[in-house]
Specification:
It is built from six helices and three strands. It has 209 residues and is mainly alpha-helical.
Length: 209
């Protein structure tokens, strides 16, 4: 009696590194001019991308300076008023301005410094259901039509500040959580979906991270 057997072949994802186009039979012969034109276009794209990165970095630096200026300028203004109006009631106003500006920073220096760096107050502590350790990754596919809501969701579920969350939204598709449990990965995906975005989870054991 013949016994029939069957086998299932599962293709696992692989990482491929492509160094350039591969010639096949019937392709046009190699042309130095065409290769030079291709290299020129690639170089121009790299220059534009690099210029965008420099512009973004300059904008971030200027934004931080602007956020740090108010208490500094307030303290300087208070000192100037106290010195110019010494002996009058205006000197007390200058002292009040100086004191308010200094205490605004000294009362919560960590909060103030984080505001200077990120433009927002520290996020609330991440719920433990989102960060249980495991072997799953979560990738943000798209922010959809409500990127602001997705940024809030990433801050809540992935322990990111405003700048980091906005960068992940701009870079989508990109990874937003790593090495968490399956239940936590599902919770993160659901939180992103409620905000209007799209995310997917994958196991680190099923392929390269």
């Amino acid at each position: 009696m013949a016994v029939r057997t069957s086998a299932t072949v599962v293709d696992r994802p692989r990482e491929l590194t492509l160094s350039g186009p591969r010639r096949r039979s019937g392709d046009q012969p190699y042309s130095r001019d065409a290769d030079h034109a291709h290299g020129t276009l690639a170089s121009e794209a790299d220059v534009r991308q690099g210029g965008d990165g420099v512009q973004r970095q300059r904008t971030n630096v200027l934004s931080r300076i602007v956020r740090a200026l108010p208490p500094v300028l307030g303290a300087i203004l208070g000192v100037v008023i106290m010195r110019r109006e010494a002996g009058t009631w205006l000197s007390w106003i200058g002292f009040a301005v100086f004191l308010f500006s200094v205490l605004r920073v000294l009362a919560r220096p960590t909060v103030w410094w984080r505001y200077v760096l990120t433009g927002g107050a520290p996020a609330e502590p991440t719920d433990a259901t989102y960060i249980q350790p495991g072997s799953y990754h979560v990738e943000l596919l798209s922010a959809g039509e409500r990127p602001i809501e997705v940024i809030r969701a990433l801050r809540e579920a992935c322990d990111l500040d405003v700048v980091e969350a906005r960068q992940r939204v701009d870079d989508a598709p990109t990874r937003i959580a790593s090495l968490i449990s399956e239940s936590s990965a599902v919770q993160v995906c659901e939180r992103v979906a409620r905000a209007g975005g799209a995310a997917t989870l994958s196991s680190a054991e099923s392929g390269p991270p």
